[in-house]
Design brief:
By secondary structure, the chain is α/β, with parallel strands linked by helices. The chain folds into three domains: 4-121, Gcn5-related N-acetyltransferase (GNAT) (Aminopeptidase), CATH 3.40.630.30; 144-327 and 420-424, P-loop containing nucleotide triphosphate hydrolases (Rossmann fold, 3-Layer(aba) Sandwich), CATH 3.40.50; 330-408, Helicase, Ruva Protein, domain 3. The chain has helices at residues 13-23, 34-42, 85-99, 116-121, 144-149, 167-182, 184-189, 208-219, 228-232, 238-249, 276-291, 311-314, 330-344, 351-357, 363-382, 395-403, 411-424; strands at residues 4-7, 47-52, 55-65, 68-76, 104-106, 197-201, 223-226, 255-259, 297-303, 321-324. A hairpin with a 2-residue loop joins strand 2 (47-52) and strand 3 (55-65). Helix 10 packs parallel to helix 11 (276-291). The longest helix is centred in the C-terminal third of the chain and has 20 residues, at 363-382. The relative contact order is 0.09. Bound molecules: adenosine-5'-diphosphate and magnesium ion (MG). Adenosine-5'-diphosphate is lined by residues 163-166, 204-210, 302, 336, 363-364, 367.
């Protein structure tokens, strides 16, 4: 087949973008996004195409700044690989870049794109010791003010790793939620649809809010929380306030929207169909599909009482997963206790005894008991003057403190939670 390489013209835009889109490396993604490439084409950066009978078989684009040029895309239609197109595009692109003042020309190749031979043929040298680092700002220009107005913020990185124990929940949420959103190209290549909305349910204090914040931190997405009680105070009513918040959220490129105590806004619709609550539930049911349209947004709804949610709200198509977040198991309780015990630096605390004594305790309960024990130890020294060689609470302090705490997860609540898992969990 005969083809020729010529300079890019404005008319080529549609065909070139189609080619790049179809050939974009999915596993690792590209350094330069398709949007950046389109921007560079529009602003007249050097680009060349390989054509045959009016059809575009290959296209390459560079960006020149001063003496430096970067090749940002080079693609050949799959059915024309091995015909030498890339080897012909490279020198043509190089010539254009040099005409604009470039002296050094670089290309960051995704590992799956075996361009090495062609690049070396064109006189490029591989720099194998280089590694590509990148940091994407969570909030784009112009989004900061809006984020502030909504009371949202960019959370520090590392919150996910600070979630102790809860391995079952962590693994599940990481695999179903975090990874598909963090690796969208790879997910798409496997036919996995990244989630747009999830429900976390479980007894109070088990870590639902903590997980929602952890997800945002892992993804580096801004975190915005909706407080139904605050929205209800809005002059226009709750339904109206919800609509407004969702409209504002739509402005963000990427965002995690957290809605706590969602059973308050979407309780089971019973009785008089005209009550105000019905209107709010209906509004939310209408807002979710629109929210789902973009793939860099996640709605996390949390509830202590999944059984009192409206059934339409929970139907597939609105929420991708309904994930139970249960009371911590022994290994999670151990990790939670260890975190508090480690703070005091004492090495003689019997963790196993604490773990055994706190079945049914939530992280919040453990946190409370640990605080009480620390306070006891502190007062013993400061108020009662008993100087201790090892500061910090002892095993007995912790056990005494724990006895003062009523575990949140009573046998009845645990039974209810197990029934809810059987009836509602979708993982
Ligand atoms: N896995 C965990 N590791 C450490 N601390 C946790 C964990 N889960 C919850 N906590 C702490 O327990 C408290 C209650 O957690 P939270 O996420 O608010 O529970 P929920 O939203 O389910 O009511 C918070 O202070 C949180 O920091
Ligand atoms: Mg909470």
């Amino acid at each position: 087949m005969s083809w020729l390489v010529r300079e890019y013209q404005d008319d080529d835009m549609e065909a070139v973008v189609r080619l790049w889109d179809a050939t974009s490396p999915h596993r690792y993604g590209s350094v330069f996004s398709l949007a950046e490439c389109i921007g560079a084409l529009r602003s007249g950066e050097p680009a060349v195409v390989a054509v045959s009978g009016g059809e575009i078989l290959g296209a390459a684009l560079a960006i020149v700044t001063g003496e430096r040029a970067w090749i940002v895309r080079i693609a050949v239609a799959p059915e024309h690989r091995g015909e030498g197109l890339r080897a012909a595009l490279l020198p043509a692109l190089e010539r254009l870049a040099v005409e604009r003042g470039a002296r050094r020309i670089g290309f960051v190749a995704p590992p799956e794109q075996d361009v090495a031979e062609d690049l070396e043929g064109a006189g490029f040298t591989m720099r194998p010791a280089m590694a590509f680092f990148e940091k994407v700002q969570a909030v784009g220009p112009g989004e900061t003010a809006l984020l502030e107005a909504l009371g949202g913020r960019v959370l520090p990185s590392g919150l996910w790793d600070r979630i102790s124990g809860m391995e079952t929940e962590k693994t599940l949420i990481e695999r179903r939620v975090v990874l598909p959103l963090a690796e969208p190209e790879l997910a798409q290549a496997h036919g996995v649809m990244p989630p747009r909305a999830i429900v976390l349910f479980g007894p109070p204090g088990t870590g639902k809010t903590t997980f929602a914040r952890g997800i945002a931190s892992r993804l580096g997405w801004p975190f915005v929380e909706i407080f139904p009680s605050r929205l209800a105070a809005d002059a226009g009513g709750l339904a109206n306030a919800l609509r407004e918040v969702f409209a504002q959220i739509a402005e963000f490129e990427r965002v995690l929207l957290f809605m706590d105590e969602v059973e308050e806004i979407a309780p089971r619709r019973e009785g008089v169909p005209t009550s105000a609550v019905h209107g709010v539930t209906n509004e939310l049911l209408k807002l979710i599909p629109a929210f789902r349209e973009r793939d860099t947004r996640l709605l996390v709804a949390a509830t202590n009482s999944v059984r009192s949610l409206d059934s339409a709200f929970l139907r597939p198509g609105r929420f991708d997963y309904l994930i139970p977040v249960g009371p911590p198991d022994a290994s999670a309780r151990r990790a939670l206790w260890k975190r508090f015990v480690d703070v005091s630096g004492r090495s003689d605390v019997d963790l196993d005894a604490l773990v055994g004594a706190t079945d049914g305790f939530t992280p919040a309960d453990i946190e409370y008991a640990a605080r009480v024990a620390a306070q006891t130890a502190f007062e013993r020294e400061v108020v009662h003057g008993h100087a201790t060689r090892t500061p910090g609470a002892s095993t007995d302090d912790y056990l005494a403190a724990q006895r003062q705490v009523r575990p949140t997860v009573t046998p009845a609540i645990r039974q209810e939670f197990l029934e809810d898992i059987a009836a509602f969990a979708r993982t």
